[in-house]
Amino acid sequence: MNVFLWGVLPYLALASVIGGTIWRYRYDKFGWTTRSSELYESRLLRIGSPLFHYGILAVIAGHAVGLVIPQSWTDAVGITETVYHAVAGIGGLIAAVATVVGVAILIYRRRTVGPVFMATTRNDKLMYAVLVSALLAGTYITVVGMIDPHGEGVNYRETVSPWFRSVFLLNPDVTAMEAAPFRFHLHVVIGMGMFVLVPFTRLVHIFTAPIHYLFRPYIVYRSRDSRAAPGNAPARRGWAPIGVKDKDR
């Protein structure tokens, strides 16, 4: 079972993400969207959406630092384990609270606002269930680490992180992951399940960040006809032939 969970399942999840995303792009380009429901309700969305999105970005950044950067690198620059875990714990807790509160508001909005609920699919419900499970499991790990920072199994950089890096080196360190506490096992399995769902749910939009907005040309706005009096309609409609005014039509 350990060989399957930590040596086979990660590659199945990666294959699903890569293959599913390619399939979705080729055969469902018009469905590649968040299916925004802002037209139905905006008050709760203005609160929940920024909390969730900024929180999840901080969560992803924290995972990237904790899983990708080896402990030896932080030791080399003089960052002690106490300082590292204190910063990671406080920052992780803030990000977790923001994300959980944000997704709670979004789910409440989706359940209580009629048109939004009517637009919710079974696919969405499954996605929310897996996403919330991953967030709660991660929040629990963060809280346990802050309560007992020197407890057994708290230092995931000795177990989960080496395993994570070894997966991308095509030599999964099953033993390292096996030594991690059960709460990490649960969080990782749920996380892999969430990534499996990404190409087939609205989460696919994480691969379409609007980076092109930074490079698109300026939008040019034309002023009203200078011959028209302020506050009045232009002397000529935009679709009318040149030289023909409304009074001539």
General form: globular
Order of helices and strands: HHHHHHHHH
Q: What assembly state would you assign to the polypeptide chains in this entry?
A: single chain
- What is the averaged pLDDT score? 86
Global structural class = mainly alpha
Radius of gyration: 25 Å
Give the strand content: under 5%
Instruction: State the distance separating the first and last CA atoms.
Output: 81 Å
As residue ranges, the low-confidence spans are none
Query: How would you sum up the major sheet?
Result: none
Write the layout of secondary structure elements.
Blueprint: H1 2-27, H2 43-68, H3 71-76, H4 81-112, H5 114-118, H6 122-147, H7 160-168, H8 174-178, H9 182-197
In short:
Helices cover 61% and strands 0% of the residues. By secondary structure, the chain is mostly helical.
Write a concise keyword list for the protein shown above.
single chain, 249 residues, mainly alpha, 61% helix, globular
Characterize the structure shown.
The longest helix has 32 residues, at 81-112. The protein is mainly alpha-helical and 249 residues long. The N and C termini lie far apart (81 Å). α1 packs parallel to α9 and α4 runs antiparallel to α6 (122-147). The radius of gyration is 25 Å and the shape is globular. It has 9 helices and no strands.
